[in-house]
Amino acid sequence: MDFSEQIAKHLYEVYFGGNWTVTNFKETLSDVSWKEATTEVEEFNTIVTLVFHTNYFVKTVSRVLNNEGLSGNDKFSFDHPEFTSEEEWRAFVNDTLEDAKTLSESIKKLPNEKLMESFTDKKYGLYNRNLWGVIEHCHYHLGQIVMLKKLVQPN
User: For residue 71, what pLDDT is reported?
Assistant: First the structure.
């Protein structure tokens, strides 16, 4: 397995399972209702906000790998639409999982040499750094989602 395939595997695992943390987005979100996903707990972000935020960067990196350029800004990464039904929430979760699959497949196709090139501009570091960064970012926020889930779901 080459380096690109290893990175793709790690991204896939944070979304679909098989990683060291023994948690993933698909399983974690499978029993979170729309009401729970939008429930505010103190000053924390909601589950829907965190899912949108992580997916924002998955989609941003995916566009770069598809030669669409870098078009993303952290200040917009929390600006999710309002979800008003269980159907909207479920569709969003499904789209998020599909976006992760798409990025994982795109990463697999990268030649290893590309990992050591600048990610659109030197100031952003290498492809390697940015791809691992997205995965670390997903793990970080998945941990928050797991904790929020414990707070919003009835025992």
Answer: 85
